[in-house]
Amino acid sequence: MSKHTHAFQAEVARLLHLVTHSLYSNPDIFLRELISNASDACDKLRFEALADPSLYEDAPNLEIRVTFDKAAKTITITDNGIGMSEAEAIEHLGTIAKSGTRDFLQRLSGDQKQDAQLIGQFGVGFYSGFIVAERITVESRRAGLPPEQGVRWSSDGSGAFDTETITRAARGTSVILHLRDDASEYLNRWKLKSIIGKYSDHISLPILMPQEAWDKDKGEYVLRDEWEQVNAASALWTRPKKDISAEQYIEFYKNLSYDSEAPLAWSHNRVEGSTEYTQLLYIPAKAPFDLWNRDKRGGVKLYVKRVFIMDDAESLMPAYLRWVKGVIDSADLPLNVSRELLQESRDVKAIRDGNTRRVLSMLEDLAAKDRLPEGEAWEALSDDDKARAQEEAGRYTRFWAEFGAVLKEGLGEDMANRERIARLLRFASTRSDTPSVSLADYKARMKDGQKAIYYLTADTLAAAKNSPQLEVFRQKGIEVLLMTDRVDEWAMSFLHEFDGVPLRSVAKGAVDLGELQDEAEKKDCATSFL
Ligand SMILES: Nc1ncnc2c1ncn2[C@@H]1O[C@H](COP(=O)(O)OP(=O)(O)OP(=O)(O)O)[C@@H](O)[C@H]1O
């Protein structure tokens, strides 16, 4: 049972330094992170046990227990999930595997306040325990290994950690936080219970806490041996819509996405028919920093009958919608579905098409409500409706500023929905410096006799506006769309017309302004393009 000391990977050491040294804006999240790990560990066990049911040993009911000890100043979070072998503990708790956390480290600015906020947004998983703990001990035993092959991992969060082999009868993991003196407020049942209620209510496993009773002799509350479930423990998406409040949807989104901002919109549906599934999809308010990484598609989690299957369910969402977050729970897919199978499955294709259509209609809805109704239409609204309309106005503009450029990829990627995507596009133009002009707006104000929608691509708005190619259009009072995203030229090459009107780049040689131009002007114009 010898003890070994290991150095943390340099990146972990940096992260820990930050966690322990920065003023943390919301220390409560340590519990959310550790409960989420415990829940993941149970999901993993359930998944592995599909192939090998003996992994359940004699404890098939998966659960998470949270308790504390005032005298010892500890909080313990225990799960009976997959557990870790000694080698796994060394690897998983000593290095950072997640690319997200690495990106996070790269983005650190050195400004403590800003960086502390960033941690809040990302959540740094296990290491957030060090926000409140001066030492963390983890005791674990992997499902399937004998009790003598348990492990104790321990660290004070500076450069190194120790491991030793222990005997542990129960499968799974206990994370024991030895609290710092200034974190003793967490040695309180009510406090822990309310944090669990706030952040972890949706966790689909029971979270248990010991009950408390008044001890007359001691003159204080003491913990009893009886356990009480403190979360609702029904996966949020399985509950009927009418029983879920907006706050619960938003909190679930924050847990899912690590985004600190509320989403712009969500949509929750049970889809019935030849393929049955539940769909809960969110449109975030802010783009992630890795939006341009087309390979990264961790937004939508796939469950099969409430069993978590995989995280980066690429097959569930096309690349141009990779920023959508949410959950799909299918009743039809086999539980042991593999990545390869996912790609071939007709059910999955149906789910993906359904998701795409759903997101597009959420965006259409946001777009329709982006501007407040005017005149009589506005007057006709009740006060409640006016308030709602005011709240919803401007959301599509926000969406477009964050995600518009990625949505344009859809023109090239998703032929079936090209028309719908085209209606969602917004551009700056010779009439508007902000990207607020839709193709429909443009078409509605085309001049009599104008036969095409004109656009110009350039590196910047200033360059576009100063382009000599616009001169003739200005003279004729014809609006030109100004496009400055890198993706524009590529994307527009897929869009030849909109609602029966052809699209023309003003840069592509002589432009025929048709009846709007007399012959002499046409000649001038043609030479000016040579
Ligand atoms: N309770 C646990 N049971 C089993 N393994 C665990 C447990 N907690 C952590 N681990 C292991 O340690 C790894 C690192 O945990 P950490 O929380 O830092 O990152 P993560 O879980 O991968 O990411 P995140 O928590 O941000 O989703 C996990 O991926 C998992 O393999």
Brief digest:
The protein has three domains: 4-233, Heat Shock Protein 90 (2-Layer Sandwich), CATH 3.30.565.10; 237-368, 2-Layer Sandwich (Ribosomal Protein S5, domain 2), CATH 3.30.230.80; 425-527, Rossmann fold, CATH 3.40.50.
How would you describe the overall organization of this protein?
The protein has 530 residues and is an alpha+beta fold. The protein has three domains: 4-233, Histidine kinase-like ATPase, C-terminal domain (Heat Shock Protein 90, 2-Layer Sandwich), CATH 3.30.565; 237-368, Ribosomal Protein S5, domain 2 (2-Layer Sandwich), CATH 3.30.230.80; 425-527, Rossmann fold (3-Layer(aba) Sandwich). The protein is built from 19 helices and 20 strands. The protein has helices at 10-21, 29-51, 86-92, 99-106, 112-122, 189-199, 246-257, 339-344, 346-368, 375-379, 383-392, 395-407, 409-413, 418-424, 439-444, 461-465, 471-476, 488-492, 519-528, and strands spanning 4-7, 64-69, 74-79, 133-141, 150-155, 160-166, 172-179, 207-215, 220-229, 265-271, 277-283, 300-304, 307-310, 325-330, 427-429, 432-437, 453-457, 481-483, 497-498, 501-505. A nine-stranded mixed sheet has the order 1-6-5-4-7-3-2-8-9, with helices on one face. Strands 16-15-18-17-20-19 form a six-stranded mixed sheet. It has a five-stranded mixed sheet with strand order 10-11-14-12-13, sandwiched between helices. Helix 9 runs parallel beside helix 14 (418-424). The protein is elongated, with a radius of gyration of 28 Å. The chain starts with a strand and ends with a helix. Mean pLDDT is 88; it is low at 525-530. The structure holds adenosine-5'-triphosphate. GO terms for molecular function: ATP binding; ATP hydrolysis activity; ATP-dependent protein folding chaperone; unfolded protein binding. Homodimer. It is found in: Cytoplasm. Molecular chaperone. Has ATPase activity.
